Amino acid sequence: MEVSAFDRDILARVKADRRYADAVLLHPSEMYRLFEPFWFQRAPITLIESFAQFSALAPMAEPWPLRSQLPARYVAAKFYGNTALPDTSANRALIGQLLADLTQHTDVVLLNTGHRFDDHEDVLAPTRGRVHTVEHLMTPENNLAVQTQIIRHAAAFIGTYGGFSYLAPLCGTDTLAFYSHPTGFRFDHLEVAKRVFSGLRCGAFVELDTRALDVVSLGLGGRLRSTVTLP
Amino acid sequence: MSRTPALLEVLRGVRRPMRRRNRERKRLAEQAEINQSEWQVEREIEDLVARGRTLVVGPWLSEVGFETLYWIPFLHWLKGAFRLDSDRLVAVSRGGVAGWYADLAARYVEIWDAMDPAEFGRRNAERGVTKQYQPSALDAAILETVAARLGTRDFDVIHPGLMYRLFTLYWSGKRAMGFMDAHLRFTRMTAPVVIDPVLLPAQYIAVKFYAARSLPDTPEMRAHLRAMIAALSARLPVVLLDTGLVLEDDHADYTFAAGGRVVTAQPWMTPATNLGVQTQIIAGASAFVGTCGSLAWLAPRLGVDTSALFVDPKWLHAHLPVAMRGFHKLGAGRFAVADLRAVPNLPSA
User: Fold this and answer.
1) Distance (Å) of CA B118 to CA B123, B148, B209, B259, B314
2) Which of A27, B54, B109, B272 is positioned for an S-S bond with B155, CB 3.0–4.6 A?
3) Contacts of B205 in chain A (CB under 8 A)
4) Per-residue confidence at B344, pLDDT binned at 50, 70, 90?
5) Which residues of A touch B (CB under 8 A)?
6) Residue (of B149, B192, B124, B195) closest to B54 by Cα position
7) DSSP secondary structure string for all residues of B125-165
8) Distance from CA of B56 to the nearest CA of A (A)
9) Mean pLDDT of chain A
10) Tens of pLDDT along B263-302?
11) Chain B: nearest CA to A204, how far in angstroms?
12) Nearest C-alpha of chain B: how many angstroms from A2?
């Protein structure tokens, strides 16, 4: 919410490196201050709509050299523990089962980075057969760009509800995001996401409560069984 | 005269603060209008309450979903905020829902006791709108029967239009979620016994699928829902809550064949009791699965774990956060939404 010493240090280095002597700063704290009334339930969603313009992400450079190192057709997956999908044994079992089920039909590219870049621990999923890892294709400097490209070239994205699940639809990739603790995230973020993605119609965005997965799986003929509500 | 970039920049510098002031003035005017709308409704409610007379709450003529998600929690807020005694309140609705109002009002008037459901349906359709923003001729006719039942005209009416006018501010994006938090109280509910419980399996899943814009009636959807019911019945007996009637709103139930471990509740329902019977069946179920809306907003308040299905979230944007927040804070039955676009070969609406 404010410009920290860390920000200032980064800014000083960028200014020196790029010779941005005259540049003025538009810091993320301005956005946080502007949107805070919405997050605190004091302003309606129109506040966000008034000060944000959503669009699909612009294409990145093509041809993409790393494309040849990926399967011809795959689903990108990124599961990590957060407050919405905590790293519990039940969720690990569910993710393992999801991936196992997916590999019956397609290759899966796991976006686990092997590095810790934020406050989430990547859930280590079993890597066998058609499950591919891509840690060797990434460096800390390019990891997000590479993951974005992998998602863009994927047939679909599946993962934890949160950051990357918001990115995938903007890349034009249909997205299935899971949560198991509805109290572990803010409904207002979800409301914004659903409005934005259904309006943009670039990639579909479907969020699923793992407790509802049982019902959805029944719609699939009961192929998938989860640890959920139904007796 | 050619304008140089420098001159343009000067002009922009002059215009910018003017534009900003205009924008701010416009926004203040909008805010003032919104505040006036809100305060007007609040004043009307305060005036009605201050008169000290019996308060008729209703008549409720529109959709079950708005009644369960908004109207009843709104009345609980109203009752708490103005410290109203149950003895002062008379609830008026239809379909045998006395139980929904049991903690609110000491008296309940069933609309269909005095008016045939078919006539009600016809006259309700003549109103031309589903929502009750204004009292209609039908409201007036029903209030006449209420007066006859109460034996007096000495009462005031908390009409659903007050709630619709107030909450439109939120549905149209002019008020924040905090506004809804401030005007809704979700409470646990118990279901009165309407039918003999021995009619029901010892353990079962209650299922209610109706066609809505969020779950449209297509052959693919029917096939998936049919398969889902079959799969559910392999787990536990299923009690279908389709009434076979279109009575109270614009949603028609999906009708699926009963047989084996799938039981239909149709024989146990009359128009005048249908919602009360469905409520009892849901309350006794191990889980509830149904279209997101209507009774899916009620089941968690009965303490029943609920899976609410939809395929087009566009029609649920404003309502889902209210439901999710309300039910999670209440901590009764779990409320989980299932977006069926996750199911292959089900096109989004």
Assistant:
1) 9, 21, 23, 30, 32
2) B54
3) 230-231
4) low
5) 37-38, 40-46, 49, 176, 182-183, 187-188, 190-191, 194-195, 198, 204, 206-209, 211-216, 218-222, 228-231
6) B149
7) HHT--SS-SS--HHHHHHHHHHHHHHT---EEEE-HHHHHH
8) 32
9) 84
10) 999 999 988 899 999 999 999 999 999 999 999 999 999 9
11) 9
12) 25
Among candidates A44, A183, A212 on the partner chain, residue whose Cβ is nearest the Cβ of B173: A44
Percent of chain B with pLDDT over 90: 64
ipTM of the complex, rounded to two decimals? 0.72
* pLDDT over threshold 60, residue A120: no
B289 membership: H or E segment, kind and range:
strand B287-291
Average pLDDT, rounded, for chain B = 90
What one-character-per-residue DSSP string does chain A give?
----HHHHHHHHHHHHHHT-TTPPP--HHHHHHHHHHHHTTSS-THHHHHH----PPPP--SS-GGGGGS-SSEEEEE-EE-SSS---HHHHHHHHHHHHHHTTTSEEEE---SS--SS-EEP-----TTEEE-GGG--TTTHHHHHHHHHHTSSEEEEESSHHHHHHHHTT--EEEEES-GGGS-HHHHHHHHHHHHHH-SS-EEEEEHHHHHHHHHHTTS----S-S--
Task: Copy the structure tokens of residue B33.
Answer: 């209008």
3-class secondary structure, B23? helix
Residue in A with minimal Cα distance to B348: A204
Shortest alpha-carbon distance between residue B286 and chain A (Å): 7
User: Exposed (0-12), middle (13-18) or buried (19+): which is B141, by Cβ within 10 Å?
Assistant: middle
User: Could you tell me which chain B residue has the CA closest to the CA of A187?
Assistant: B321
Q: How many contacts does A have with B, using Cβ atoms within 8 A?
A: 116
Whether residue B341 and residue A206 make contact (CB cut-off 8 A), yes or no, is yes
Q: Which of A158, A209, A227 to mutate to test the interface with B (most CBs of B within 10 A)?
A: A209
> How many angstroms separate the CA of residue B80 from the nearest CA in chain A?
22
Partner-chain contact A216 B305, CB within 8 Å: no
Q: What's the number of CA atoms in the CB half-sphere (13 Å) around residue B319?
A: 20
| Chain A CB contacts of B228 below 8 Å | 215, 218-219
Contacts of B340 in chain A (CB under 8 A): 216, 219
Beta-carbon count within 10 A of A79 CB: 27
Is the confidence at residue A115, as pLDDT, over 60? no
Q: Report the percentage of chain B scoring pLDDT > 70.
A: 94
**β pairing state of B54-57 and A205-209:** unpaired
Distance (Å, rounded) from C-alpha A34 to C-alpha B173? 17
pTM: 0.85
Tell the burial category of B288 from Cβ atoms under 10 Å away from its Cβ (0-12, 13-18, 19+).
buried
Quickly count: other Cβ atoms within 10 Å of residue B328's Cβ. 17
pLDDT at res. A118: 41
Cβ neighbors of A170 (< 8 A, separation 6 or more) are A54, A55, A56, A57, A200, A202, A203
